[in-house]
Amino acid sequence: MELKPIRTEAEHAEALADIERLWDAPEGSADADRLEVLAMLVEAYEKAHFPIEAPDPISFLEYVMDVRGLTRKDLERYIGPRGRVADIMNRTRPLSVTMIRRLCSGLGLPADVLIQPYGLREPIAA
To answer: What pLDDT was estimated at residue 122?
Structure first.
């Protein structure tokens, strides 16, 4: 395959096949350079044709909690008291900038995901 921008699905498939063939190319070789350029071309094509939306902040927090074995109690140091954590996780209160900063610095979470807008539910009447 000639190195050029990928414009069609067929060119994309061909580039992926070339990447697979070149995957174990020795570092510093011409094949390794070709692999690197093909990977950049495929990445550009896929960003344009298969965009991935940022996850919902609360779904992302739930995922992080699950993967890291965290509980809602573990979030209290970043979000606030138990009731506030419940409000955030139940989507009745939005994350504040302060909470986002604490989650980013304390858990190493990306701010660009946590600042995404997300829907809130109406608070449950007492």
So the answer is: 77
- Give pLDDT tens digits for 65-84: 999 999 999 999 999 999 99
Sequence letter at residue 39:
A
CA distances from 25 to 2, 6, 32, 59, 114 (A): 18, 22, 5, 39, 39
Beta carbons within 8 Å of 61's beta carbon, 6+ residues apart: 75, 88, 89, 103, 109, 114
**pTM of structure:** 0.62
Long-range contact pairs involving 88-95 (C-beta distance under 8 Å, separation at least 24): 88/58, 88/61, 89/58, 89/61, 89/62, 90/121, 91/58, 91/118, 91/119, 91/120, 91/121, 92/120, 92/121, 92/122, 92/123, 92/124, 93/120, 94/118, 94/120, 95/57
The structure tokens 């209290």 sit at: 76
Q: Write out the H or E segment, with its range, that includes residue 60.
A: helix 57-68
Q: What is the pLDDT of residue 5?
A: 93
Position 41 pLDDT exceeds 70: yes
